[in-house]
Amino acid sequence: MKRAKITIAGSGNVGATIAHLTVLKGLGDVVLYDIMTEAAQGKALDLQESGPVEGFDCLVVGTSQPSDTANSDIIIVTAGMARKPGMSRDDLLDTNVNIVKQVVREITPYSPHALLIVVTNPSDVMAQVALQESGYAPEKVIGLGGVLDSTRMRSFIALELGISCEDVGALVLGGHGDGMVPLIRYSQAGGVPVEKLLDPETLESIVERTRHGGAEIVHLLKTGSAYYAPASSVVAMMEAVLKDKKAVMPVSAYVKGEYGIADLFVGVPVILGRFGVEKIVELDLLPQERQDLMNSAEAVRKGFGQA
Ligand SMILES: NC(=O)c1ccc[n+]([C@@H]2O[C@H](COP(=O)([O-])OP(=O)(O)OC[C@H]3O[C@@H](n4cnc5c(N)ncnc54)[C@H](O)[C@@H]3O)[C@@H](O)[C@H]2O)c1
């Protein structure tokens, strides 16, 4: 069977960590694409040299040549600036929109059948920019947001209850920004609704911590933003596609009227398989939840208007 080819544009903290997880899981050959050619080559070679110890045969190359990315099955865009303390994701817009446009223009023509995962922030807006620049079908472009926000919320619930995080499910919809919509009603531990296990004040503090989960890490790191949980989240999305898992995950997807929102990327639950977004799952939302989702979508639309 042909090994998958995965191009990761941006070999910084998130990109390199995705590359590491990709080869450890043997998901495919990796191309680290970056304007910093030698840094990408150095990281690629270092990863390659871990193969004999880890027991993987994936090839890893670093490059700044678009043609080296040809015939990728997955393209992941992490190129761009990360937040520093005090910055919101939207503060990155002006810089990152140019970088994402450039990268997508450079590499997507070489891989017309790839699935594109956009990580660069603000990721919902950048996914829309990437859709426009690539000309890909909308179901082949997704942004990182909900999987990361939900894994943060799952961690906070598990830590609060002192139980295995594996047993905890949580769902965060909306744009990947301060207006994201963590849904307590759709969060559970081993099938038991969290509302039966935690008091309302604790649940509200978990919701707030989830909304500001990225900023909490930025504040601690000082020089950049989170990358371990983001990379794990991207790899989960990538695995769903490569293994045609039909996994139900919240991702930033192009909605065409679902949830009353049209022509925009926003975090919604989708079925993710080898064709990309195979279905958008529409949940019954309470009026306040629906309003929160609309507000979050409007913030994304406004950001795109400024891109
Ligand atoms: N959507 C999410 O949930 C999420 C989570 C974490 C990080 N992010 C975002 O991902 C991006 C990357 O974060 P990071 O921590 O890896 O940053 P980083 O600074 O460590 O890495 C960025 C990399 O992009 C490269 N780059 C810049 N311009 C380029 C270009 N034109 N072509 C190719 N490569 C280019 C840089 O050389 C660098 O290696 C940031 O925008 C960050 O905000 C998003």
TrEMBL record:
InterPro entries: L-lactate/malate_DH, Lactate/malate_DH_C, Lactate/malate_DH_N, Lactate_DH/Glyco_Ohase_4_C, Malate_DH_type3, NAD(P)-bd_dom_sf
UniProt keyword annotation of NAD present: yes
Residues bound to NAD(+): G10, S11, G12, N13, V14, G15, D34, N96, V119, T120, N121
EC numbers for this chain: 1.1.1.37
Residues annotated as domain Lactate/malate dehydrogenase N-terminal: 5-143
Gene Ontology biological process terms in this record: lactate metabolic process; tricarboxylic acid cycle
Residue intervals of the Lactate/malate dehydrogenase C-terminal domain: 148-301
Record's keyword terms, sorted: NAD, Oxidoreductase, Tricarboxylic acid cycle
Active site: H176
GO molecular function terms noted in the UniProt entry: L-lactate dehydrogenase (NAD+) activity; L-malate dehydrogenase (NAD+) activity
Family stated for the protein in its record: Belongs to the LDH/MDH superfamily. LDH family.
Protein name: Malate dehydrogenase
Species classification: Bacteria, Bacillati, Bacillota, Bacilli, Bacillales
